[in-house]
Amino acid sequence: MKKIVDDDRLIYKCCNLYYMKNKTQVEICNTLGLSRATVSRMLALGREQGIVKIEVINPISYDYGELEQKLEQRFGLKEAIIVESEPLDTKEEQMDMLSEAAFDYLSHILKNDDYVGVTMGRTLSHIAHVDKFYNKGNKLLFVPLYGGISQKRTEKRDVQSNRIAVEFAEKFGGDYVQFLSPGIFSSKEVKDIFLQEDTVNYIYEYFSKLRVVVMGIGIPEAGGTALVAEGYLTENELKNFVEMGAVGDASLYFYNIEGNTKPFDSFNQRVAGISQEQLKNIEIRIGVAGGIEKSKSVVGAVRSKNINVLITDSECARQMLKEV
């Protein structure tokens, strides 16, 4: 004899009343003359048999799972995180969305006793000022990836790496160290001599302990990189780099669309900071950048292996796939 709970018609009716008519289980019991246990079992069978299919929609952001997977596969990324972008979004709105996504990702992956490297720039400063809180109580240490002494300021806000390390420590409740050196020297020889001093070369011990780094990605045009605003590079020098094929800079190193830094050694070798080899050995290397205008810069950064986790927006992501 067929049991009541095996009656497909009754299972459908029970599910329809519950999910479509918003009836309570008690009301269904009274309507159909069934016990509470039978109704509960029929609702479960409705899900198991595919009569009921539940779809959960994320109300906060659009789902770019497929696009993220394409980026990960195409560029060999550990992870890609994409936020929504619209043509009418202001630069500030785009920055806010990227910064919040970066903060959320960091909140998820940071562990107790982590050493975290940070670069300079407006992007990282925005991350440190998002309207969110981190209260996991992890012991963290933030380390500037290169020197940060300059006479200039961007938008009246200090966005050099030493200051960013302080701001991240304040935001995430950790400690910080300072790299008391210019970011760029007049020559490689002067830099090498300076970094032999015990008062500054201690920073390399911290570099060796880094598990996570966070960096912005600049583009070689006025307003697109903090290097000009902070006095590390003149606009004429930047123009020459563009003519040589530069598409961006990350962690103060310029590179071309293939991710090759060698053509820009005249500048890159004067950087006082973490080396390219050290950087590529760090487990989690996060790059944060968005906007269609930064697509080539991000492609080059990914190809250089400076980053293996990308946080970007949908416009930049789609354009990146067209670039290759």
UniProtKB/TrEMBL annotation:
Keywords on record: DNA-binding, Transcription, Transcription regulation
Signal peptide boundaries: none
Domain Sugar-binding: 66-322
Assigned protein family: Belongs to the SorC transcriptional regulatory family.
Name of protein: Sugar-binding transcriptional regulator
Transcription keyword on record: yes
Upper taxonomic lineage: Bacteria, Bacillati, Bacillota, Clostridia, Lachnospirales
Record carries keyword Transcription regulation: yes
Gene3D superfamilies assigned: 3.40.50.1360, Homeodomain-like
